[in-house]
Write a structure and sequence with these properties.
Blueprint (H helix, E strand, L loop, with lengths): L10 H11 L6 E3 L2 E8 L5 E4 L11 E2 L9 E7 L13 E15 L6 H8 L2 H17 L2 E6 L5 H22 L8 H16 L3 E8 L2 E10 L3 E9 L8 H15 L4 E6 L3 H6 L2 E12 L3 H22 L2 H14 L7 E8 L8 E4 L11 H11 L7 E5 L5 E6 L2 E9 L1
Parallel strand pairs: 3-5, 10-11
Antiparallel strand pairs: 1-2, 2-3, 2-4, 5-12, 6-11, 6-12, 7-8, 8-9, 9-10, 13-17, 14-15, 15-16, 16-17
Helix pairs in contact: 1-5
Protein name: Acetyltransferase (GNAT) domain-containing protein
Keywords: Transferase
Organism: Algibacter luteus
Length: 414
Amino acid sequence: MNTKNSPFANNSFQSIWSKHFIPNSNIQAFKFIKGIAFYKHNWLPNYFNVGKNLTKGNNYSLNNTSDFKNKTLIIYDVLPHLMDEITVPKNLGVLKSLQYSGFLINLDQFKNIDDYLLKTFSKNTRMKLRKFSNRLERCFNLSYKMFLGEIDKTEYNQLFDDFIKLLKKRYSDKQITYNNMLPNEWNFYKEVAYPLILEKKASLFVIYDNNKPIAITYNYHTEDTVIDAITVFDIDYSKFNLGYVNNLKLLDWCFENNIKTLDFSKGYFDYKKRMCTKEYDFEYHIIYDKTSLISSFNAHLHYKFFEFKAYLRNKGINSRFHKLTYVFKNGKNSKSKKKIQISKLEELPSLDELMLIEIQNDFNYNFIKKDINDFLYLVIEPQNKIEIYKFKNQNNVYILSCNSTFQQIKIEST
């Protein structure tokens, strides 16, 4: 990643990040290191890269100057695979702590999306992926939009409201804490994304069902790379494997727009491993003055701390911690207590007992939206072809009907 093209070296990114996280600190640069801006710890002689771990990758070069005297510099999310070989000046030490794996797709290896699918997945998997996409597009009135270079501010604000709602829904279902949803981080993302989109340093890729966003991906952009920063899909559409469909639609956009790399960034997920062509490392670098006892001590202390965090993460302690913090904040039984029973019917009950209902824009029926979508996946028909009934004398039983296929949904409180 050329530091001049990096969205994380962008003035908008750095000034807004500083406003949210270090409002009383000054951004500094040093002659001996290029590509990274820093801020100083309040009382220790330690300097941290601007953006810290909210960047999706940094690299730098070193010069033979001595303004590192008595200093310790900590750089998060260094990408060694994008760095040129560096010569470390005399009396300067560099400690490197491996933290995360990253995953990317090198588009230069393929002619187009079809060539990528052919060379990446088995015939059986390709058939499944096409099935998911075809069924999704048959059942719903889908549209796809990439917001890059321009976006109406009102529409932008609405999209970010939808974005956080989908994230809350997703992680409430998973019962874990997601750091990007914490108020300080989310407020930063909501403010920084707008100017970066206008500057073509970021984008929002959105899949709509009619006018409702059902998948949103926030990306950073360099000249020839798209970096997936935050992505979410509506779990009501999970039967259609919407997550994979979203990734493939984004990948198709990349092919159409001459992007060379789609970077899924740090953090392990099965889909990243299956879709990527390259796995790479994220490192934390600690640069220090070897002639200074304090600088050396600080550097090695930070190194041991980062190594310990990586050890805990590799042992799965990090995941357990996020589950515990979720329970602590939301309670042990924060999931819906409704129990839903699904049963197949051979015929439609008497219409005298039923009342036809319209749920498309009625939020009171959101609790059965996923079950209705699962039924759509089964019958493979547009959603406007389904008839939904409710028993007149029972508030907790619903009937789905389409092409002589009938299903009963019974809601029970637990």
